[in-house]
Structures are given as structure tokens and as C-alpha cells.
Design a protein that fits this description.
By secondary structure, the protein is of the alpha+beta class. Helix content is about 50%, strand content about 15%. It has helices spanning about 15-20, 45-50, 50-55, 60-65, 70-75, 125-155, 160-175, 210-215, 235, 240-245, 280-325, 330-345, 350-360, 370-375, 380-390, 390-400, 410-415, 435-450, 460-470, 480-490; strands spanning about 25-30, 35-40, 85-90, 100-110, 115-125, 175-185, 190-195, 225, 250-260, 260-270. A five-stranded antiparallel β-sheet has the order 2-1-5-4-3, sandwiched between helices. Helix 7 runs antiparallel to helix 11 (about 280-325). The protein is elongated and about 115 Å long.
């Protein structure tokens, strides 16, 4: 052992004994004229497996036991950093195990103000760091679960739920990219969400072949780490046309989401380091996946329920069309006219789709009107008019629970409003009437005039257009009439 930097006379023998018996490691690192360890207490062997003599005899040993970035942190000047502020760095033990050590350091200066050494005290804080790490992971898990719970509470949209799930998995795994893939009908898998900024995901996941391979024979119900190196078996089965999109990644982590033995979805994570997930703590991820599968199942059940409800409403609409209209294709023809008008006045695709739904279901509310009123050949009494005028409100209430139809409800509710404010059920006027209601009223009136009725013959196209133009500004929106006239004459 080299000479201690402290006086070695009888008064200090007790002190020297205490220093060597401390449960922590004391050390002094000389900076000039060359960097070397001057002194380190014997406790270092108990913590690291290296004896003080190992460090004294091999000046390069410190470079081997500290990762480069941790070396820079330890050797960084601490002139402005109080010694009470610890630095926590990694240390590679003699047996290859990595531990975390907390260092508190102070700079030593000569009489000229030059920093000549660093003295410090170090202790093993691996268990403490592990507790803090576990606490951090638990906190992250709770945060992601709370966010997922909020999303489920506010929406059943699978894309939105998929994004929250995907971002949660990325946070828990450190993935560079994540996909949420729904299993529709094996081996087909629909890409619900992809963290890569490539716009809307394709309808069918390009990695179908990969997942057919992964889940072939008996489905795997646990998290898997798969190599994506160019010489791996899985890389070979990825289609050539999509390899470029995944060429930067070397590791793939799959998290299958099973519910009662049925594979509902798969979470797929990518990373550029092949061994990145070798030491992954899977417990937080597994806990999150248990909640994720419930969220996806809820979305699926809601979608199935909504689809069933929509099919029921469509059946009602067809029944209503046959019940109330001599021409059974009235709603279909109305959709065609409404779509043409919407395009010519500049509506976007989403607006046009809602208007098509509104045209299909515009009179669905008549299902709630008694036949004796609905099929009355003569004029309605005042009391009968009160009942008849309820059908727009009834129709809007029927379709509102269906998410994809909710936006069509205002058009259905307002398709009997008049531009001068004398219509029903709300007496709206001018531009206060929703655009869909203004379009529907013109197209519906035109079809009513040109269809056969038991009490009159149909009007010609020119006569019907003339009548509609005559009512522009009173019953109808003049701009809609102008657009409709242009279409009808062509």
C-alpha cells in the first residue's frame, strides 16, 4: 500500500483504525502529475471484489470498472458543487455484476489554487436504487393506468384507446416505436395505432406473416422478445416491400392480449438495440396489459352493440320507407340528391357522409306516429298536427345514441324548418337552420312533388323546379335552391 496522505504518528493510529473499519469506502484520487488512486479503504473489497492492492497495481482498473459516461460524471469538476450533493454511478464488480454506488466528493487544492486531487466517500446504494426504480416504475404504471381509465370513461373509439395503450407501453418499456394490432380474424391483424409518424395506419397490418409465425400452432400467452437482425428467422419472413420501414430495429417485443383464451390484440414494441429488453422488468408491463385487454374488449363490445343497433335502425328505416312511401326507394334517391348538392356547395367527405345518413333516416321518427294519422288521406286536425310534427324529434332521439350517426341528428331534427322561420319543430330561421336540414328540405320536397301519390299525379321536373324556386327565401334557402336547380336541369 502506498503512503497514506495523512500523518502516521501515534496520535492518528486510532483514527486510521476507524477509517479502515468504516462501512463506507474512503478514497483519494490524485490528479497531478498523473491520475492515479492514492488511497482507498479495505472496505472496497467487500463491496466490489477488488482489493486496494488491485487498484494500486493497475492504474487502468478504474477505467474498466466505471462505464465511460459515469467516469466523466465522477471526474467532472466539482468546484461549484457542494460535497453534500451525491453522485450515483454504476460500478462493475469483479464477478461482472453491476452495482450502483453513491459518491460524495470534494476537491483538494494546492497553495497556488490548483486542483490536485479529489477525496470522497462511496457506499453501495444498489438496493436503495432498486427501490427507487421500482417506485418510479410503479408511479409510471399508475399514471398510465389512470390515463387509460380516463380514456375508457370518455370514449369507446378503438383508435383513441389504442393510442393511450401504445404510449403507455412505450413509457413502460422504453420502446422506440410501438404498434397496437387488433386480431380480427386470424391470420388477419388490423393495425389500430402506430407511433411512427406515417399518417393513418393501413387497414391490414404489413406484419401479418410475422405474427402468423409467432402465434402459429399454440398461441403464446406471454411477453416475447424476438430478434430482428438481418440473419434472424423472423426478419426473413417480413415482406421485402416493408423491410425498409423496420430496418432500423433489431429487437421486437410482443405483448399478446388474451381474454378468456381468445387473442384480442397484440402490442408490438421495437428497439434498435438487439439486447435492449434482456433485463426488462415485466411485472409493470403485465399489469398494464391486463387493463389494456379490458379496454379493447369494451371497445369491441361497444362496436358490436352499435353495429347491432345500427342494423336495427336500418331495418326500421326500410320498414318506414315501405310503410309511408309509395316508392320504396325514396330514401335511396334522396341520398343521391343530397350528396350531389353537398358536393356542389363544397362539403367535405365527412359532412357528405353525415348528410347521407340524415337522408336515409330523415323520416325514421314517423315510426312513432299512429297509422290513423300517418295514412290519413285528408287534412290533419290541429291535434293531429301536434302529433305529426313530433316525428323529427323522435327521429333525432332514435339515432343519437349511435356515435357515427350523432352528427346527423341536427339535420334530421331540422328538415321541416322553413327559411322564413315558420317551420317546425323549433321555428328556426335562415342560417340558424343546420345546413343538412336546409338541403334535405329542398331535395325531399322535390321528390315529393315528382313522385306518384294516390291523390294526384306527379309534377314534371320543370314544374317541380319552378315551384321550388318560387319558394326560395320563404320555405327554402335560396343558395341551396340555386345549387339544386343547377343539378336538376342537368
Amino acid at each position: 500500500m502506498p503512503d497514506l496522505p495523512y500523518p502516521s504518528h501515534p496520535e492518528t493510529q486510532i483514527f486510521d483504525h476507524l477509517v479502515e473499519c468504516l462501512p463506507d469506502i474512503l478514497y483519494r484520487f490524485q490528479l497531478h502529475p498523473e491520475g492515479r488512486l492514492d488511497f482507498i479503504t479495505p472496505m472496497v473489497k467487500q463491496f466490489t471484489g477488488y482489493s486496494p492492492e488491485d487498484f494500486y497495481q493497475d492504474p487502468k482498473l478504474l477505467r474498466k470498472v466505471f462505464p465511460p459516461e459515469d467516469q466523466r460524471q465522477l471526474m467532472r469538476t466539482c468546484q461549484d458543487i457542494p460535497c453534500s450533493i451525491p453522485k450515483i454511478v454504476r460500478f462493475r464488480k469483479k464477478n461482472g455484476e453491476t452495482i450502483w454506488m453513491e459518491h460524495r466528493q470534494i476537491s483538494i487544492y494546492d497553495q497556488f489554487g490548483n486542483r490536485i486531487a479529489i477525496e470522497g466517500i462511496a457506499r453501495d446504494v444498489t438496493e436503495h436504487s432498486k427501490v427507487l426504480s421500482d417506485l418510479k416504475k410503479t408511479r409510471e404504471l399508475v399514471n398510465h393506468l389512470v390515463e387509460l381509465s380516463k380514456t375508457i370513461h370518455h370514449t369507446c373509439d378503438l383508435t383513441q384507446i389504442g393510442e393511450v395503450i401504445g404510449r403507455g407501453v412505450m413509457g413502460l418499456t422504453g420502446a422506440e416505436r410501438c404498434q397496437v394490432i387488433q386480431v380480427i380474424d386470424p391470420p388477419n391483424h388490423s393495425l389500430v395505432w402506430d407511433s411512427a409518424p406515417n399518417g393513418n395506419p393501413p387497414t391490414v397490418n404489413p406484419l401479418n406473416d410475422l405474427f402468423t409465425k409467432v402465434f402459429s400452432n399454440e398461441p403464446v400467452d406471454s411477453i416475447q422478445v424476438i430478434s430482428l437482425s438481418p440473419n434472424s428467422e423472423f426478419w426473413e419472413i417480413i415482406p421485402e416491400k416493408v423491410r425498409t420501414d423496420f430496418s432500423a430495429y433489431r429487437a421486437l417485443l410482443t405483448c399478446p392480449l388474451f381474454l378468456e383464451g381468445e387473442l384480442l390484440a397484440t402490442l408490438v414494441c421495437f428497439h434498435s438495440q438487439e439486447n435492449y429488453w434482456d433485463a426488462l422488468d415485466r411485472k409493470p408491463l403485465e399489469s398494464f396489459c391486463r387493463s389494456a385487454v379490458i379496454a379493447i374488449d369494451n371497445s369491441r363490445l361497444f362496436h358490436d352493440l352499435e353495429t347491432s343497433y345500427l342494423q336495427s335502425i336500418l331495418a326500421l328505416a326500410r320498414a318506414m320507407d315501405a310503410r309511408d312511401t309509395p316508392t320504396a326507394d325514396h330514401c335511396r334517391r334522396l341520398m343521391t340528391w343530397v350528396e350531389k348538392v353537398a358536393k356542389i356547395i363544397g362539403c367535405d367527405d365527412a359532412q357528405i357522409q353525415l348528410l347521407r345518413w340524415a337522408a336515409l333516416f330523415h323520416d325514421i321518427g314517423k315510426i312513432g306516429i299512429p297509422d290513423k294519422i300517418l295514412h290519413k288521406p285528408g287534412r290533419f286536425t290541429p291535434d293531429e298536427w301536434v302529433v305529426m310534427r313530433q316525428h323529427p324529434e323522435i327521429g333525432a332521439r332514435i339515432i343519437s345514441p349511435i356515435k357515427k350517426l350523432t352528427g346527423a341528428a341536427p339535420s334530421i331534427l331540422s328538415h321541416h324548418e322553413k327559411y322564413d322561420g315558420t317551420g317546425y319543430p323549433q321555428g328556426l330561421k335562415g342560417k340558424d337552420i343546420p345546413l343538412g336540414g336546409r338541403i334535405l328540405s329542398v331535395a325531399d320536397a322535390y321528390l315529393a312533388m315528382t313522385d306518384w301519390r294516390v291523390y294526384r299525379k306527379p309534377l314534371t321536373t320543370s314544374d317541380a323546379i319552378l315551384e321550388i324556386n318560387h319558394c326560395a327565401g320563404t320555405q327554402f334557402d335560396p343558395e341551396i335552391v340555386k345549387a339544386f336547380t343547377l343539378i336538376a336541369k342537368n
